[in-house]
Amino acid sequence: MPSAAPIVLRRALILLCAGLAMAGMLSGCGGGKKLSATGASGELPDSEVEDFTVTETDSGRAQWTLFSKQAATYTAKDLVTARTVRIIFYDALGAKSSELVAREGELYQRTRDMIARGNVVLQTVEGWRMSTEELHFLNSLRRITSDKLVRVEKEGSVLEGVGFESDPNLEHFEFRHQVRATVRPGAAQIVAPGSGKEGAK
Known about the structure:
Elements: H1 4-22, E1 47-58, E2 61-74, E3 79-90, E4 96-108, E5 114-124, E6 129-138, E7 143-146, E8 150-154, E9 157-162, E10 164-166, E11 173-174, E12 177-182
Antiparallel strand pairs: 1-2, 2-3, 3-4, 4-5, 5-6, 6-7, 6-8, 7-10, 8-9, 9-12, 10-11
């Protein structure tokens, strides 16, 4: 007769994968041993797994893929919490355009919106780097936003401010408040805030 622990693990994985698949967002779901940690609120999750992966697609083309060392699902909240997060964003041709890393994150199953927190860094394949402590991703609009201090830099030029909004590739971004710019001579130009667009690459 199989032991109780493996049965619990299989049930937890089935519940997590089935819940995400019903939300229409699951491309791959991986999990190792069952975890014992609870959410920050002390509420027990419905299931917990290690090495979690989920991909959002549109007409069969990958939009983004989220990887996490640990993930917990809270069915009543329509929420998956994750730790040690990495998200790869893809362009219209399906090629990697940028990569985000963060200490932790939240994924809302119905909308596919996400929140990344803690040492958030977004690096594009074209060399732009954005860093902040909290970043929101609006899946239906494919926009990232933050009301925290955000730093954007490339080749020594730096732009900082609050009230940030951009696409995940940092091709068109803007700040709304408390903007400071430092431009190194000969470096990539950063257009003044409010233009909604980055400078020459």
